[in-house]
Design goal:
mainly alpha; 3-stranded antiparallel beta sheet; binds zinc ion; 2 domains
């Protein structure tokens, strides 16, 4: 793991434990969810509450050997976005961040929202831990301090 991803996951872990929230599914859990959805779809009989719940929000796409869990898009109910396991959130967010040239939160949300189900906090934690962006931020604030100083002197 890179230093950046370690920092990112530390912040994200804290985010979930501070708020007593359940973390997104990891690879093992997501595989289990995919199997459960497929079972529920094949089973015409009575479904469990969990199966009803899963079917109301998710579906499974089978691409070659892979089973991808997809979720109804919050912004567009007719569309679906991929659910990413916890371990892969960093990679997905990182790729989007590079794609938008170290762009900010809104650019990243725009880049991700039609493809992946990624929480806003994951994007925020990523930006807080991106060295390049943090350096840029510092430079900007140093410049403005400098201006204020000159202004006061005059
Ligand atoms: Zn950056």
């Amino acid at each position: 793991m890179s230093k950046h991803s370690e920092l990112f996951y530390k912040k994200l872990d804290d985010y979930y434990s501070d708020r007593n929230k359940k973390k997104p599914w990891n690879i093992t859990e997501l595989t289990e969810v995919a199997a459960e959805i497929l079972r529920a779809k094949q089973n015409s009989g009575k479904k469990t509450r969990r199966q009803y719940h899963l079917l109301s929000l998710y579906d499974v796409l089978e691409v070659a050997e892979e089973k991808i869990v997809i979720k109804k898009d919050k912004h567009d109910g007719g569309k679906y976005v991929s659910v990413i396991p916890y371990e892969k959130i960093f990679n997905v967010v990182c790729e989007a961040h590079i794609n938008v040239g170290h762009g900010g939160r809104d650019k990243m949300i725009h880049n991700l929202k039609t493809k992946y189900d990624v929480g806003r906090y994951a994007i925020e934690k990523f930006l807080e831990t991106c060295e390049v962006c943090q350096k840029k931020k510092k430079q900007v604030s140093c410049k403005s301090d400098h201006k204020t100083y000159h202004f006061n002197k005059l």
